Amino acid sequence: MASQKRILVIGAGVSGLTAIKACKEENLDVVCYERIGELGGLWRYHENDLDGLPSVMKSTISNTSKEMSSFTDFPPAKEFPTYMHHTAVLKYLEMYVEHFGLLSHITYYQEVIELIPAEDYGTTGKWLVKIRDLHSDENREEAFDGVMACVGHHAYPMSPSYPNMDVYAGQIIHSHSYKTFTGFEDKTVLVIGAGNSGADIAAELSNVAKKVYLSTRRGAWIYPRLFEKGKPCDVCNNRRYKTLLPSKYTMNKLEKFLNKRMDHERFGIKPYHSVSSQHPTINDELHAKLLNGRVIVRRDVKEFSETGVIFDGEEESTPIDVVFLATGYQVKFPFLSDDILRVGKNNKVLLYKNMFPPQLKHHTLAVIGLIQPNGSLFPVFEMQSRWFVALMTEKCHLPSTDTMLSSVRSTEGFRARNFVQSPRHSLEASWLSYMDEVADEFGVKPNMAALLLKDPKLFWACFFGPCLPYQYRLNGPHKWEGAREAILGYKSRMYGHIKNGREN
Ligand SMILES: Cc1cc2nc3c(=O)[nH]c(=O)nc-3n(C[C@H](O)[C@H](O)[C@H](O)COP(=O)(O)OP(=O)(O)OC[C@H]3O[C@@H](n4cnc5c(N)ncnc54)[C@H](O)[C@@H]3O)c2cc1C
Ligand SMILES: *[C@@H]1O[C@H](CO)[C@@H](O)[C@H](O)[C@H]1NC(C)=O
Ligand SMILES: *[C@@H]1O[C@H](CO)[C@@H](O)[C@H](O)[C@H]1NC(C)=O
Fold first, then answer.
1. What is the pLDDT of residues 110-130, one digit of tens each?
2. Does the predicted TM-score (pTM) go above 0.90?
3. Ligand 3 atom 4: the closest Cα is on which residue?
4. From ligand 3's centre to the CA of 240, what distance in Å?
5. Domains, the chain, ordered by start
């Protein structure tokens, strides 16, 4: 073990945890530095808004179902509900950490403040890392063979500016700082942005506020968590056979389904774009809130006034006490210089498969989690981490810089052709295609043809059933013996928390 490589994982959020696990699996010497005193990243609720420290709201419930959000070799216990409250998600993370012995690799209160190529980078690919110990406030330097940046991208609020915003006398708060409804009782509130946070805040405040307006420039497709017969949205949609159907057909069907639940046009929230061109807004309550008038939809804000805002197409100012900007986040890597990773307009980043700066000579640096798939991120983080580790142990290789650059361009082209142009979609990916693409790089994509011949029952479950993350432990490096059973038995866990319910 003389040449055991030393890997740095920056951040102990979900992506950092999967990174440590993947390194351990390959016997790499892994160190994780986390700048706060706890693991779990934004799933750990913080009441107070600390600068750059993201956290869920007090009422946040995951918007991806538990079986589709699981780690590939660690199915959540039966007792966890189908969609988990953030406290349950954190519990699941703690169980994962315990089970795979990840804790001893994490050192808290260590902030990475600079990452530069080491002197011998040209020959070794090593990185020199500057770390601030937040206990003693002292800086030190350490060298690493590989670095996984797992710092999340919900830390730096993006706030648009509107004419006369500065004369407005009410409160303006970014969704980043919204934790609970207290303090907003009986207020007239405007939420700008109908993405996941905007919809959550509007729905929650409408229980206690005097009036809630929800302003959306482009409208939104609202996906309920519960699809047919209460099956989770992602369980219904992320299925292999669906990727073989003409996308026009599946998209039409999906759009019809969403409109059947709530006619988006009648409710004034229909986007100009089809369901395939816009990231989903997952919300179960908004439908009813729009119907009972507790949430009132308006188009874009034209300008602010002293007491409120003037909406597009209106002349009069609407009085508003508090404005929430649910307008997303800026992608930033303060410890990396522009020549390593530049973030352009609309959060565009030059990364091969959302992970590797293609221009570097050695691919010993990866960004984990800088992606917006239409499915759970947990298995995606894990997939990315496993790929990086396979590269570090030379089980596979990246193509030439030119090939990577042209791949980045074609991905950008795809996003530009298929999605509404906005910072919201710069990181967009189709969950199943991305998982398969990366899995294929290091041999863990399920071999469907072989399954069909060897194990038709499992083939059927993998092809027609939901693409459960355990599928990526059926073959290749570090396959898991329990994967088959986890796939065939998922239904008994999915609703396992419900007493007196029917199994399956
Ligand atoms: C409100 C909300 C709800 C969400 N719900 C879901 C959901 O239901 N399902 C889903 O799949 N995804 C959901 N997401 C997406 C979410 O981004 C991921 O689930 C995931 O938690 C992100 O994990 P992360 O590790 O990449 O980032 P984070 O959780 O942000 O963790 C990053 C960690 O890195 C640390 N760090 C940052 N910079 C440094 C540094 N320089 N040095 C040392 N440490 C550093 C931070 O302190 C933090 O602990 C949600 C996001 C939000 C905001
Ligand atoms: C994600 O997007 C792909 C491609 O557009 C689509 O086939 C799939 O059904 C979507 N999944 C969900 C959960 O909406
Ligand atoms: C779930 O919500 C988070 C935060 O609001 C969002 O980033 C993510 O894209 C949502 N998930 C899906 C599948 O839409």
1. 999 999 999 999 999 999 999
2. yes
3. 196
4. 21
5. 6-155+330-443 (3.50.50.60), 159-327 (3.50.50.60)
